[in-house]
C-alpha cells in the first residue's frame, strides 16, 4: 500500500464497483471506497475527479482500441462489412473477455440518471472517435457519420441483450449478427426475400 | 407581472435562452434570468428545478407529440415508410415552424458538456416514448426498438445539417429525405442500382 502501488487505480475501481453494486451509487462515499481498497482519499483524487469518473476511467483506452480496430481493418470492405468486421473484432477483444465486469458495470449505471447521462456522452465520444478513424480511411464526413452511428446502434442493442444473460451462454458476436440482420431486414425488406 | 402571469414560464425561457447565448450558460445566474424576465426567483423555481432545466422544459410536450404522430399514422406502413411518415410529420409540425429557436437552442447546448449529456438523455427518453407508441401498434419489442433508434439517428443527422444554415433555405424534410436515402444505400447498396 502507498503512493507507488502500481495497481492503486485498479483496486479503487474494483472497490468502487463492488460498493456501488452492494449499497448503491448515491449511498457510497469516496472514503468508503478508499477504505475498502486500503488506500487514502488523496490517492483516490490522484486518479479520479470524483466517484462518477471511477466508472468511466477505461473510456480513453476503449476509444483508442476502437480507432485501432478501424485502422487495421482490411481495405475495400463495403460499409456494412466494415461495421460487421469492426464490431466482431471489438466484441472478441474488448467485451467478451470481461462479461461479468460489463454486466455489473451496466447494472450500476442503470440505477442513476447522472450515470446514464454520462454513459450516453461516452457513447457519443466513441462515435466521434470512430468517425475520425473512418475519415482517415478516406470516407467522406456524411458516410463516416452514418456508419459510426449505425455501428453504435447495433452494438448497443447487442450488448443490451448479451448482458441480460446471467452467464455468457451466448457470445456477443451472436447478438451482433442478429442485430445486423434485423437492420438489413428493416431498411431493405426485399433483400430478405428468397433469391428466386 | 406576478404569480398569475399566464406566460411567466415562456418569458423565463426566452430570457434564459437570450442570456445563455449572449454571455454563456455557465456565466448566467438565475437572478439574471428573472431580472431580464421581470419576475422573481421564487417564480423561477416554481417552474424549473435549476437553470439547466429551463432548456428542457418542452421535453414532455415533445414526447407526447411524437407518440401522437405514431398513433395517428396510417395502418399497414412498412417500417421504413412509418419512419419516413413520422419524421416528416414531426418536421412540419414540431421543428420547421421554430427554426431560429431550435438553432439558438442547439448552439447553447453545444457549449456545455452537462447540457450535451442532458440532451443525449432527452433523446434517449424520446426513443423510449417512440418504442412504447410503436408497441401499441402491435410491433414486437426488438422491431420497435430498432425503428425508434433508426428514426432518432436519421432525425439527429437531418437536424444537424438543417441548423447549419443561417436561415432555413432548405426545409428539414429535405435533409430527412437525404439521410434516409443514405441509410438505404449503406445498409443495402444493391437497392440503389438502376432497376434494369
Compute the number of helices of chain A: 10
Helix content of chain A: over 70%
Question: What is the correct CATH architecture of the largest domain in chain A?
Answer: Orthogonal Bundle
Most extensive chain interface and residues per partner: A-B, 30 and 30 residues
What order do the SSEs of chain A take from the amino end to the carboxyl end, as H and E?
Answer: HHHHHHHHHH
Describe this structure in words.
The structure is a homodimer of 196-residue chains. Chain A is mainly alpha-helical. Chain A folds into 2 domains: 47 residues, Arc Repressor Mutant, subunit A (Orthogonal Bundle); 131 residues, Tetracycline Repressor, domain 2 (Orthogonal Bundle). In chain A, 71% of the residues lie in helices and 0% in strands. Chain A is built from 10 helices and no strands. The longest helix of chain A is centred in the middle third of the chain and has 24 residues. The termini of chain A are far apart. The C terminus of chain A is likely disordered. At the A-B interface, helix 8, helix 9 and helix 10 of A face helix 8, helix 9 and helix 10 of B.
Task: Give a short overview.
Two copies of one chain form a homodimer. Chain A has 196 residues and is mostly helical. In chain A, 71% of the residues lie in helices and 0% in strands.
List its salient traits:
homodimer, Tetracycline Repressor, domain 2, disordered C terminus, 196 residues, 2 domains, Arc Repressor Mutant, subunit A
Topology:
Two copies of one chain form a homodimer.
Chain A: H1 8-23, H2 30-37, H3 41-47, H4 51-54, H5 59-72, H6 79-95, H7 99-109, H8 113-136, H9 141-162, H10 172-187
Amino acid at each position: 500500500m502507498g503512493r507507488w502501488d502500481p495497481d492503486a487505480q485498479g483496486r479503487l475501481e474494483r472497490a468502487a464497483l463492488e460498493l456501488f453494486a452492494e449499497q448503491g451509487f448515491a449511498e457510497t462515499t469516496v472514503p468508503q471506497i478508499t477504505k475498502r481498497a486500503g488506500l487514502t482519499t488523496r490517492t483516490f483524487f490522484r486518479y479520479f475527479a470524483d466517484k462518477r469518473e471511477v466508472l468511466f476511467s477505461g473510456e480513453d483506452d476503449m476509444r483508442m482500441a476502437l480507432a485501432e480496430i478501424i485502422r487495421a481493418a482490411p481495405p475495400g470492405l463495403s460499409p456494412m462489412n466494415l461495421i460487421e468486421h469492426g464490431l466482431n473484432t471489438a466484441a472478441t477483444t474488448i467485451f467478451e473477455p470481461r462479461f461479468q465486469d460489463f454486466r455489473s458495470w451496466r447494472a450500476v449505471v442503470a440505477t442513476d440518471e447522472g450515470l446514464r447521462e454520462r454513459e450516453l456522452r461516452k457513447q457519443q465520444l466513441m462515435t466521434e472517435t470512430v468517425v475520425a478513424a473512418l475519415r482517415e480511411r478516406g470516407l467522406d464526413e456524411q458516410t463516416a457519420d452514418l456508419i459510426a452511428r449505425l455501428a453504435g446502434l447495433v452494438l448497443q442493442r447487442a450488448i443490451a441483450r448479451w448482458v441480460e444473460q446471467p452467464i455468457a451462454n451466448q457470445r456477443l458476436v451472436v447478438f451482433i449478427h442478429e442485430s445486423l440482420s434485423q437492420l438489413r431486414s428493416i431498411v431493405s425488406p426485399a433483400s430478405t426475400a428468397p433469391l428466386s
